[in-house]
Write a structure and sequence with these properties.
Number of domains: 1
Shape: elongated
Order of helices and strands: HHHH
Helix content: over 70%
Number of helices: 4
Radius of gyration: 19 Å
């Protein structure tokens, strides 16, 4: 939908449902990560990994709040019957920026988990 900003207006109801669903999924995803962590038994994890895990966990709140602000802006923009193309393009740009932030965050989490398993199992054997 974001590849063609005019579709956001044409399919505004669908788009708003998607961003609302994503908000709920982000909340669940972050809550599960915070409740269960990244490791089965953190007591055996190297402190340097725990520090990184803590920093990544701390990013959850900021990411979620940023997304909620983005959702509010999207609703405001799409409430107008014919928002200006520049306003739609700015919204799409914000969505792309958030997507990049979330992907970076998830990639760092994946690297952290891989590093723990590599250290635990050992590589190059």
């Amino acid at each position: 939908m974001c590849r063609e900003p005019s579709r956001l207006v044409l399919d505004r109801r669908s788009f708003l449902e998607v961003i609302e669903t994503l908000r709920d999924q982000l909340a669940l995803h972050f809550a599960l990560e915070e409740a269960y962590g990244y490791f089965d038994d953190p007591i055996y994890v190297a402190p340097r990994l725990c520090d990184r895990a803590s920093a990544l966990r701390d990013e959850h709140q900021q990411l979620y709040l940023s997304y909620c602000e983005l959702e509010v802006r999207a609703v405001d923009v799409l409430e107008h019957r014919s928002p200006a193309r520049s306003v739609l393009e700015a919204l799409v740009s914000e969505i792309a920026d958030f997507d990049a932030q979330l992907r970076r965050h998830e990639e760092e989490e994946n690297q952290l988990i891989q590093q723990e398993y590599s250290d635990d199992i050992g590589v190059g054997d």
